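Our preliminary data section would be incomplete without showing what the modeling component actually yields. Below, a chain of 255 amino acids is followed by its predicted structure, encoded as tokens that our downstream tools consume directly.
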Amino acid sequence: MTSIFLRSLVFNVLFYLTMAIWIVAALPTFVMPRAALVGVVKAWGRWNIWLMRVICGTRVTILGTGRIPKGPVIIASKHQSMWETFALFSLIDQPIFILKRELTWLPFFGWYLMKAGMIGIDRKAGMRSLKMLARMAQEQMHRGRQLVIFPEGTRRPVGAPPAYKSGVALVYAECEVPCVPVALNSGLCWPRRTFLRYPGTITVEFLDPLPPGLRRAEFMSRLTASIEGATGSLVEAGRREQARLFGRVPNAPAD
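Predicted structure:
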């Protein structure tokens, strides 16, 4: 465990140090087309994946990318870690993320989010905010972009009971596009609320798309079953691997 602690320390120092460098390097993109900034962010995501593999021994496997339709689509992903916020960005063609509005207020980082066309949501505004969110998502997807949404709204510990929100169903109904569920097990290697980073394999699996036009109850039922079933299998496989690698499985802090 001493080795994991030291590797995590080195990784976190380099992660935040190089983040500052990437932020400065991206400054010229403020006066360039949005695609230039998107290219820089994708490169930053790939850099972090490489950094984590080299320092922490964390590998990445991506499954099912052939299931992502071309053009407008909703990517509805399990959310266990900060890892998927940059990793999914580097995997999606023209991504838009839904995120909490407060992030757009941060100097530089928030300005980049606005430049990249991300959608900030006021989570305290209730239905009014959700309707505005759905309208903005619809406008962006009509331009050919692909929406990434975390249906549970926030990171959840590995193994926690599912807590899907109704917002994803509203966006799905308003936008009338397919929805690709995504399962992952990132929380085993990058747990939330701890600076420790663990060796192992993060697996992301894009699952069979749900067609547009499903009734709300059926959509939520199929989405939840698809994500939770596949995530459970990925987590179990990841735990077996980590037990072989270092003898125990990390536990994420509870709510």
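The CA atoms of residues 134 and 220 lie 16 Å apart. Helices lie at 2-25, 34-56, 83-91, 109-115, 127-141, 167-175, 216-246. Preliminary results of this kind motivate Aim 1 of the renewal.
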